[in-house]
Amino acid sequence: MQVIPDTRNRRVKSILVTLPKPETEKSPYFDLAKKNNLKIDFRSFIHVEGVPAKEFRKDKINLADFTAIIFTSKNAVDHFYRVSEEMRYEVPADMKYFCISETIALYLQKYIQYRKRKIFFGKQTSTDLAEVLKKHTTEKFLYPCSDVAAEETQKFLQDNGYDFKPAVLFRTVCSDLSDLAEVFYDVIAFFSPSSVHSLFINFPNFKQNATRIAAFGASTHKAVLEHNLILDIPAPTPNAPSMTMAIEQYIKQIEK
Q: Is the pLDDT of residue 207 over 90?
């Protein structure tokens, strides 16, 4: 990826968001672009590949042994039901579902009759589920996840003594970014350590120079710093709970 040397406080005109393009025009990124006259492109630096049922069987996890499932992403939901179908496992009607957010809970409607199932959800993090999980300590939980599962969730479940089993049903894979080799952006926004690693797998000699780096979440901040990059726009913060708010505050600051 080409980087044009310049001062680091140059006006922001272009941003690369390392996520898939939003499906609707209601995304705050489009509002940010319009309000600040920005060019914002979307490009996922990573993608997900499912673990085949044949390979999953090698882990010797019997899906029928579990009375509850913990879902922390839509990918986890999709690949749980994919593997269940490939293994001809019929999820029982009395299965309990614990979702990290209401959005993921509602996503279950793609596969089950929502109102006829026992579904619980938190606000956004694993600890949000604490109060709900306290009432279900006797359950045996399946935790569908990727090969880079969130350490926060597993640590929370372990520290609180829950009977759970991680099930790696999908993998996070670096995308081919070769078409970006000669492209420059004023800001690159990252949302996961895997996306940061993907940048350097695709461009081992990447130099930051005038490019500003935005990163969301503590683990992503850590990955940015481990690659000796300058973290210009950290998020979330008390004054900027979202990435778009953090970027907008940064733009206002440098344009003073």
A: yes
What are the pLDDT digits (tens) for 4-52? 445 678 899 999 999 999 888 889 999 999 999 999 999 999 999 999 9
Domain with CATH 3.40.50.10090 in the chain: 49-172
Torsions phi, psi for 70 (to 5 deg): -110, 120
Q: How far is CA 247 from CA 32, 38, 49, 233, in A?
A: 9, 11, 31, 7
Q: pLDDT tens digits for 74-121?
A: 999 999 999 999 999 999 999 999 998 889 999 999 998 887 889 988
Nearest to 121 by CA among 133, 137, 105, 110: 105
What phi and psi values does residue 104 have, to the nearest 5 degrees?
Answer: -70, -35
pTM: 0.75
The C-alpha atoms of residue 250 and residue 15 are separated, in whole angstroms, by 13
Residue 64 makes CB contacts below 8 A (sequence gap 6+) with 89
Could you tell me which CATH class the domain 49-172 is placed in?
Answer: alpha beta
